[in-house]
Amino acid sequence: MAAALLLAIFTITASAAAHWDKDDHEIFELQSALEKSEGKGATFYSVLDIKRTSSLAEIKRAYRKKSLELHPDKNLGVEGAQQRFERLGLVYKILRDGRKDRYDHFLKSGFPKWRQNGYFYERYRPGLGAVLVGIVFLSMAVEVGISKLTSGLERRKIERLKMSARLVAWGPRYQAILASLFDETPAGVQPSKISQMEKKVRVPITGFPSLPAYPSAAAIKSGTVDWDVQEQLTRSVLSNPAVSDGAPIVECLVHKDDVLLHDKFSQEWVKLDEDDAKPSGFHQTWPFRLVGALVNRVTGKHEDVLGEVEDEQDEEEVVEKSGAKNGRTAKKNKNK
């Protein structure tokens, strides 16, 4: 297994370096030596003091001029004079033949660097800090995306429950009655007093999933909605309601365009509003919540939920003990 892994790594490495030919390697080596000698950023053109767009004749003249200047006989005792003169000759050979286009390509795209067994392009390798920051931002984006998805589902659930409650309260023509509550009465709709009355209804908490879509405001305003067709579609849903098995039944209060849900725990009526299902933004993701919690804990502004729970438990124990004590006292008095 280990041998196969090493073979695969070697094959990938070899194939990554095999696309450079002999001329490319010569260009890489000459460019590397040139930068070491002349300084970083030195090019074949800067050595000859010419532009990249220079013609072959201009390159030839520049070479003759530069070769006289760098000839070893004129630079006796200068360290590296012979090597500079030889590199100049190699530069001229490359720029005067077809390898010039290849050099221009690397000059534009960048030169690969030598890495152990071949030339490779340098790639950005993020550090630990950059990786952690990237993970944090990615997790924030995922959290926001999931929040938008779930909020959209919640909005549709609330809207379906409201429409289902109106259907039970107002009958199959509930869409036309609902449309009459906004602005002026749309074409083909008679004002109804039924929507002005409060009515309690019981519907599945999932609503009726197959209800026809409520017409758009533009369609209602233009009078292009056929309310009789909408009523027929609603009646067909009522004849065979696709309700999830085991869906709990909830009590709703319908009054005008408002629908309230009865909370059996608090015994209160809660208004159903699609706008309550808002997706969280970036400032509401876990890093901001974590920082806020730490700041509140340091400044002492946090609410000690655990403490409150313990206090409530202590109060319940006191009440229970007090009740038990009063019961024993009453029993004694009765026996006496």
Order of helices and strands: HHHHHHEEHHEHHEEEHH
Give the low-confidence spans.
1-18, 304-312, 323-336
Q: Major β-sheet, in short?
A: 4 strands, antiparallel
Number of strands: 6
- What gyration radius follows from the Cα positions, in whole Å? 41 Å
Spatial ordering of strands, largest sheet: 3-4-5-6
Strand content: 5-15%
Protein name: J domain-containing protein
Keywords: Membrane, Signal, Transmembrane, Transmembrane helix
Membrane topology: Single-pass membrane protein
Subcellular location: Endomembrane system
Write the SSE topology.
Elements (H helix, E strand, L loop, with lengths): L1 H16 L4 H17 L5 H5 L7 H15 L10 H15 L3 H11 L3 E2 L4 E2 L7 H43 L3 H6 L19 E6 L12 H6 L4 H13 L9 E7 L2 E6 L4 E4 L14 H14 L5 H31 L1
What does this structure look like?
The chain has 336 residues and is α+β, with helices and mostly antiparallel strands. The protein has 3 domains: 11-120, DnaJ domain (Helix Hairpins, Orthogonal Bundle); 131-276, no CATH class; 304-331. The chain has 12 helices and 6 strands. Strand 4 (249-255) and strand 5 form a beta hairpin. The longest helix is centred in the middle third of the chain and has 43 residues, at 128-170.
Key attributes of the depicted protein:
8% strand, 3 domains, Helix Hairpins, 12 helices, two-stranded antiparallel sheet, elongated, disordered C terminus, four-stranded antiparallel beta sheet, 336 residues, single chain, alpha+beta
Summarize the entry for a quick read.
The chain is of the alpha+beta class. 57% of the residues lie in helices and 8% in strands. The radius of gyration is 41 Å and the shape is elongated.
